[in-house]
Amino acid sequence: MLVAADKFKGSLTAVEVAERVTAGLRRAVPGLAVESLPVADGGDGTVAAAVAAGFDRRTVRVTGPLGAPVTAAYALRDGTAVVELAESSGLHLLPRGVFAPLTATTHGCGEVLRAALDAGARTVVLGVGGSATTDGGAGLLTALGARFLDPDGAALPPGGGALAGLATADLSGLDPRIRDVRLVLASDVDNPLTGPQGAAAVYGPQKGAGPADVAALDTALAHYATVLGPDLAGAPGAGAAGGVGYAALIALGAGFRPGIEVMLDVLGFAAALDRATLVITGEGSLDSQTLRGKAPAGVAAAARARGVDTVAVCGRLALSPRELGRAGIRRAYPLLAVEPDPERCMARAGELLERVAEDLARDFLT
């Protein structure tokens, strides 16, 4: 039995989900052998999943999205570093009700990358979900030695809004070590940098951007790409994390892969699957977004390719049995079926998860 679930956002971490599911399974089937492998798809919780799989947790003091210092973690094992952009530049780091769509910076993420290089990383997995930023990755590149200058030769201020005034992009000072590592951009986002499906239009509103801000950011990012190089602005993933994908692809030589595929490789999912007769996956909401590369869909696809059945646990279920089946999930157990009030369900998520895990065990293991 393998438990490979993502977090229930706002309620439980992926590690806590695994603990609660295991407790429920063993209450129904005492002594059951259960292996836990918390998973993530590149967004919030990616470093935590790597640490749970045996990576060392490292911390570094860096620049937060608003410029104030924050403590960010990354994970390291055997020359592979897992860097989560949200740790340094995430929405959760903003004060409640405060957004900075035009000025938030990814500078801190570049500082974390530099720390990973200092620690000897030869492969870096960069997970880019959950960002508060739309700066095209300019802050990240600046932290690694790039210079972005206005027509007078002065450094641009932080944030995507300032990119409208970019005259010169000088990449000659980039840390040379970045070209000697394998950099993997891990994301479930395949948007281009600009346009109706671009970083500003699609994700800017989630970061506090109103219509005027979205238009200004899209124009600024388009100008940025003109100066830095337009060839990869339309590449899948260029719009990830407000354009960090574009910066990583064009300036750092990164390769783009779906986040869950990268993380399953890094976490050793294939080896764990060899020992499993059933996989339990899940996340807070199983919905249409799940089918677009979220962790449960990736877990189920990998398990199905190896002939192992998958079932799921979730807070909310918004997929039909047919949609679940197409994703490789035999059945889902939502917490809202036990406690229909959403607030109480989130507050009691751990207890309810144990209860549905008992039901799952009786259905599939007895």
UniProtKB/TrEMBL annotation:
InterPro entries found in the cross-reference section: Glyc_kinase_flavodox-like_fold, Glycerate_kinase, Glycerate_kinase_RE-like, Glycerate_kinase_sf
GO molecular function, one term: glycerate kinase activity
Key words of the record: Kinase, Transferase
Coiled coil: none
One example of a Gene Ontology biological process annotation: organic acid phosphorylation
Domain of life: Bacteria
PANTHER family: GLYCERATE KINASE
Family as reported in the entry's similarity comment: Belongs to the glycerate kinase type-1 family.
Name of the featured protein: Glycerate kinase
Organism in which the protein naturally occurs: Streptomyces qinzhouensis
